[in-house]
């Protein structure tokens, strides 16, 4: 039975990857940060599996990582842990740099120290590396221009992986993942903020969304598709770096409109700049009983603008298609529908609980 070690196993990607690997017959070890409240909700369905083993630890603890990897001696390592909120990285740049940058280096060097150079290593890189670079779509040869402490720290990790590959012969690869979402996405991320917020408004549980740059354009895919690609990268004879993307681009505004339509609500946009609002202009069906024509569901709020914006990201995954036979199975519109359905079910439960209470 192959041994896999996943950092960030309690996150969106970690939970989908753990399910995939257990289904493929792996014994999965996951790194979990100790917290005062339970943080294993996304992997709750796996906790009874004899193939899953959780270990407390942190990417900031070099000695602890060495001890843990010496115990597990994994065949594959998937480094998914990170301070993953781009906006928060502007507020916590030193912490972000340590976890997202130095954390990767600690893992790589722990493997080198233990003589585990045969262990295959996957690094969760990001489309944020491209930032303000010229030209679309962005591919493995596109120049990087990171625009946040998050992206800068991830760039350090990207080159650390390549350095250990070239210097020590590691089978180490970067997955340059474009935006990928799911019903398990954190509530602070824009796509989930939209689907959860509109679902709760539809049930009368909250007021209008406050949002930043709704003109930002992104390449959105499903996390379940993307973790399959992460595994594929480590099954190749030779390591390499791959863009993982759908090749389709939509704006935050588009995602907002789609989410409304999934709830039977059509939206109009009034005003411009900081005065822009999204307003209900038609309601059909019964999925949004608390919304009426004329209701405001979104207002632009300058507090949600970043100090430096990334206006447009669009990926070219031709290398992944050509070498690995990978292609995404879920479209952005299908992804939005799945997220809305999940968030609407949760909102209805919350609304029922409020009534009964």
Automatic annotation (TrEMBL):
EC number: 4.2.1.47
Residue sites binding NADP(+) per the record: 85-86
Enzymatic reactions: GDP-alpha-D-mannose = GDP-4-dehydro-alpha-D-rhamnose + H2O
Gene Ontology annotations of biological process type: 'de novo' GDP-L-fucose biosynthetic process
GO molecular function: GDP-mannose 4,6-dehydratase activity; NADP+ binding
SUPFAM superfamilies named in the record: NAD(P)-binding Rossmann-fold domains
Protein name: GDP-mannose 4,6-dehydratase
The NAD(P)-binding domain, residue ranges: 5-339
UniProt keywords, alphabetically: Lyase, NADP, Nodulation
Species name: Ketogulonicigenium robustum
Cofactor(s) listed: NADP(+)
The protein's role, per its UniProt record: Catalyzes the conversion of GDP-D-mannose to GDP-4-dehydro-6-deoxy-D-mannose.
Signal peptide interval: none
Family per similarity comment: Belongs to the NAD(P)-dependent epimerase/dehydratase family. GDP-mannose 4,6-dehydratase subfamily.
